Amino acid sequence: MPQYHAKVFVTLKPSILDPQGRTVERALSHLDHTNVSGVRVGKLIELTLTGERPEVEAQLAGITRDVLSNPIMEDARWELEEA
Questions:
Q1: Lower CB count within 10 Å: N or C terminus of the chain?
Q2: Could you give the 3-state DSSP secondary structure of residue 14?
């Protein structure tokens, strides 16, 4: 069976305050990186899945929506490539 490597990217929705991103932005400013703004911090989750691509894509979409992210507060997208 084919094996796939997935990357799931989860970030806070633009309307949700990102205190971690704001802290990073302030730190960068204090280090004289004054041209940096709009810092948002997210998470990357990597998975390996086995199966036929259509089923793996459906499974990954469900995992992303139901387990790895909170659709009320977060946006999530994924990339899938054959391992």
A1: N
A2: coil
